[in-house]
Amino acid sequence: MSTPLIAILAGDGIGPEVTAEARRVLDALGLDLTFEEALVGGAAYRASGHPLPAATLDLARRADAILFGAVGDPACDTLERALRPEQAILGLRKELRTFANLRPARIFEGLEDASTLKPEVARAIDLVIVRELNGDVYFGEKGRRTNAAGLREGHDLMRYDEDEVRRIARVGFETAAKRRGKLCSVDKANVLETSQLWRDVVIEVAADYPTVELTHMYVDNAAMQLVRNPGAFDTIVTGNLFGDILSDQASMCVGSIGMLPSASMDAGGKGLYEPIHGSAPDIAGQGKANPCAAILSAAMMLRHSLGQAAAADRVEAAVAAALRAGVRTPDLGGDASTRAMGDAVLAAL
Ligand code: NAD
Ligand code: IPM
Ligand code: MN
Question: Where is this protein found (predicted)?
Answer without folding.
Answer: Cytoplasm
